# Entry
Amino acid sequence: MNTPKQWKKLSEITNFTPVKLIKKEYQLWDKAQNKMLKSATPIKDFKPRWMFECTDFNLTLSKENVGQMLVACFDIGQTNIYNRNYSAWNNGKTGMEIRYNISLARQTETPTEQPEYPEDTITADQIPF
# Structure
């Protein structure tokens, strides 16, 4: 039986790979009640949020974050944000001033097999200088 994936905050991760969009909803932080208000339909002052299923967890992203993902992988008039590895980092601030940035993760080249070199057969006398 499949266990549901854990929801994570962007502040808890550094890399993620979205697999599919789960849903879009609208959210507003209510300071008086100290909680997040949610709606399936647009309401004045509510901001859109997209819920993605990633390879190891689920993640909620803002319009700005999704826009950064789209721009990062835009290629010849098309874009596909799924099954690509992204890096996430913040601006170093806290509270309401914190902002998160997203870009494609750098692809690390897998090391190829090292060529085999012959044993050290050169002596100091063979070096011409």
The two ends are 72 Å apart (CA to CA). Residues 13-105 form one domain. Strands lie at 7-8, 15-16, 18-30, 35-39, 47-54, 58-62, 86-90, 100-104.
